[in-house]
Amino acid sequence: MTALDMRRRLRTVGSGLFFVAMLIVGLLVLLPIIIIVLTAFKPVAEVNAFPPSLLPSDWTLDNFTRIFTELPFARLILNSFVFAGGVTLCALVFDSLAAYVLARIDFKGSRVLLLIIVASLMIPFQATLIPIYQLVADFGWVNTFWGLIIPRAADAFGIFFLRQFFLSLPRDLDNAARIDGASEFRIFRSVVLPNAVPALLTLGIYTFVNNWNDLLWPLVFTTKQEMGTITSGLTLLTGPSGIVPYGVMMAGSLIAVVPLAIMFLFVQRRFIESVASTGLK
Amino acid sequence: MTASDTRPARRYRPPGQLGGRGPIGGQAKRRLTIAGFLLPALAILVLFVFWPMLSALRLSFTDASGFGQEEFIGLDNYVEVFSDPNILRAMGNTVLYTVMFTPLAVILALVLAMALNSPRLPLRGMFRTWLFLPFIVSLAVAAFAWQYLLDPQVGLVNYWLQTFGIRIGNVLQDPVLAMPTVVVVAVWKNFAFYMIVFLAGLQDIPSSLYEAAKMDGAGPWSRFRNITLPLLNNTTGFVLIIATIAALQAFDQIYVMTGGGPYRSTQTVVMQIYQSGFKDLELGFASALSYVLLVATLILSLVQFFFTGRREKDTA
Amino acid sequence: MKKLLAATALLAVAGLGLAACSSSDSGDTAGGPVTLTFWHGYTEADGDVLQGIVDDFNASQSEVTIEPEVKTWAVIDDTLLTALSADEGPDIVAMPAERLPVYASKGAFRDLTDFYASDDSNTAELNPQAVDMETVDGTVYGVPTGFVPLAVYYNKALFAAAGVTEFPTTWDEWVAAAEKLTVDENGDGTPEQYGMVLPDHATVANGVWPSLFYGNGGDIVEDGTTAVIDSPENAETLEYWSDAVATKKISPTGVDGVGADELFSSGKVAMTIGGPWMSSIAAENSIDYGIAAIPAGPAEQAASAIGVSMGITAQAGDAEAAAAETFFSYFFEPEVATAWSLGSGWPPLRTDIPAADVESNPTVAALTEISGTSRALLPGVVNSSDVLTEMDVVTQKALAGDDIASLLKDAQTAIQTTLDDQ
Question: 0.95 exceeded by the pTM?
Answer without folding.
Answer: no
